[in-house]
């Protein structure tokens, strides 16, 4: 697949009551097409968060936004633009980071989490020193992370977010 210069087209979801910030690396092709986070039907992000928060899995974009606000969770990505082949995190280069400090200035974020190792590496390289905060790396909810079952993801995410399932 050919590499292309891609620009993040999804606004962050947060408000002043957000306490947890979850950052991905960069939206997948499906997410960029839908202009919303974790839109690929095989990505387990929404199932995991719903399980952690003991709620039904939100369906529509509006339901997902309401779910995040209700649970004081902010969502965005580390990267604002990059060169990428399809949805392959391994192909990411020419990174321009997102200005995540804007969320930190407007909300009392208690903890920052990153969804997967690539997001963790990108956060450490492009964000950590700039904002002076560390992030907890969680196992990726991507379908590419097939070694992690939904149950294992639920356990790991629940423990990290200090919520028992």
How would the blueprint of this fold be written?
Elements: E1 3-7, E2 20-24, H1 29-34, H2 45-53, H3 61-70, E3 73-77, E4 79-85, E5 93-97, H4 101-106, E6 111-115, H5 117-126, H6 128-131, E7 136-138, H7 150-160
Parallel strand pairs: 2-3, 2-6, 6-7
Antiparallel strand pairs: 1-4, 4-5
Helix pairs in contact: 2-7
Note the main attributes of this structure:
165 residues; alpha/beta; Uracil-DNA Glycosylase, subunit E; four-stranded parallel β-sheet; three-stranded antiparallel β-sheet; 34% helix
Description:
The chain is an alpha/beta fold and 165 residues long. The chain has a single domain (3-160), classed as 3-Layer(aba) Sandwich (Uracil-DNA Glycosylase, subunit E), CATH 3.40.470.10. The chain has 7 helices and 7 strands; from the N terminus they run ββαααβββαβααβα. It has helices spanning 29-34, 45-53, 61-70, 101-106, 117-126, 128-131, 150-160, and strands at residues 3-7, 20-24, 73-77, 79-85, 93-97, 111-115, 136-138. The strands form 2 sheets. The protein has a 4-stranded parallel sheet. Strands 1-4-5 form a 3-stranded antiparallel sheet, with no helix packed on it. Strand 4 (79-85) and strand 5 form a beta hairpin. Helix 2 crosses helix 7 (150-160).
């Amino acid at each position: 697949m050919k590499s292309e210069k891609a620009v993040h087209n999804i606004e962050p979801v947060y408000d002043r009551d957000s306490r947890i910030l979850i950052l991905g690396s960069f939206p997948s092709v499906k997410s960029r097409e839908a202009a919303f986070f974790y839109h690929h039907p095989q990505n387990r992000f929404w199932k995991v968060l719903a399980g952690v928060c003991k709620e039904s899995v939100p369906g529509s974009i509006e339901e997902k936004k309401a779910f995040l606000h209700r649970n004081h969770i902010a969502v965005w990505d580390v990267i604002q633009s990059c060169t990428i082949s399809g949805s392959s995190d391994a192909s990411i280069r020419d990174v321009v980071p997102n200005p995540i400090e804007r969320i930190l200035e407007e909300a009392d974020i208690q903890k920052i989490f990153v969804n997967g190792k690539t997001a963790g590496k990108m956060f450490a390289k492009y964000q950590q020193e700039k904002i002076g905060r560390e992030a907890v790396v969680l196992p990726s909810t991507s379908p590419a992370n097939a070694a992690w079952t939904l149950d294992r993801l639920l356990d790991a995410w629940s423990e990290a977010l200090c919520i028992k399932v």
